[in-house]
Murein DD-endopeptidase MepM/ murein hydrolase activator NlpD
Amino acid sequence: MQKQRNNPRLLGAMGKHFPRTHALAAGAASFALALTLFVSTPEVEAKRTSLEVSLTLPEEAVQQIQEEATAAAIDAPQSVMEGLRVVQETVRNGDTLSDLFQRAGISSAEMYQLLSSGKEAKQLAKLVPGEELTFQIDGEGSLQTLELHRDRLSKVEFSRNSSDEYKYALHQREAERYTAFREAKIESSLFVDGTKAGLSNNLIMEMADIFGSDIDFALDIRKGDRFSVIFDEKFLDGEKIGNGAIQAVTFTNQGKTFSAVRYTDSNGDTNYYTPDGKSMRKAFIRTPVDIGRISSHFNPRRLHPIFKTRRPHNGTDYAAPRGTPVYSAGDGRVIKAGYSKANGNYVFIQHGERYITRYLHLNKRKVKRGQRVKQRQVIGTVGATGYATGPHLHYEFLVDGHHRNPATIVRKLPKAKAIAKSEMARFQTQTQPLIAQLERFEQPALAQNAEEKDSVN
């Protein structure tokens, strides 16, 4: 029996079936046991080796080794201690839950039992590529637990109980949040200089959204414009995992500075406002695309590029890459969505009683006739369908049935409601510290900008 216990082949085979932590725990336990026997019977060991051995080891050291071995065994993953097999799978493009169960070696019957365990299990039918699943399976091939890792902050767990039923549990962690500040001067473009300043594409798009009613980012941006922004950075276990929302931001465009601050009112609704409580959100945004340039302006006497005749150009053309998202300029209802030889794929939206916006030459439509839409909801993507010489969006704005210049009409339309008087004290308590913090961050940058101007003069 002693030979079999110390057989190297047997130990090697055991190592293949146990994780490293368990191998270390078992090794430590074996070493502690052997050492205890060795210390407690030195005479027997000396006779066996025909050597006179005198070995003394403090009892405290022996006790410490034994305690560490016991602790290592206790800390070992429960799944292995109970004889469970652990399989981890990552959701790939095109994967179904059946594919994942098959790769894990679990029968379809087990899968259907889990799916029928309750309404919470239905979410397993909607998996996203990149999500991770951890299966724990017993020796008979029965699923004991399934963990779905939606992201690093949330985990869904289904565990089989003694009644052979699955129990649902949601585990969530809170990320640590830290305030971050970025500022930049526009030298090339908003995206290029924003990226150099350390902003993600999502934050740049969010900033463009905040000022979308005041600044036309396809037409108004100039070299020398500046922005400063405060936002949250999210960390988990010392590692950055993402960004939170913009808290306060300023943008200086052609010498005029716009400021906005994020506020959640007493009803739980969150929006952006000027420091004095006016809404940043107008009834309509300035441009229905974030990326692009104006390739053709509103012009009642334009020479048509295809037919070479004088035909009114009743809208604004935004040249942009095919597939660029197109947003609804305001809240409304889709009154037409279809295809025609001239317009290609198109969407018409009614906003209240007086206003209609039109979107032509779309690559794809994302909405249907009769559908209600919100401001900045994606209604389609830029394309070159119909009479179009290249990928672009043709955008029209009608007031009481008459075409108006989309680039200028929005400035004349009313904004959304400002902060109510009853809410103003609460608004100031929340937002004034953010404005003060942004001003403190901006002071060094403003001082440097002033020095640059003085040196030039």
User: Anything to note?
Assistant: The chain has four domains: 2-76, 85-172, 177-273, 293-412. Confidence is low (pLDDT under 50) at residues 1-25, 31-57, 69-81. The radius of gyration is 33 Å.
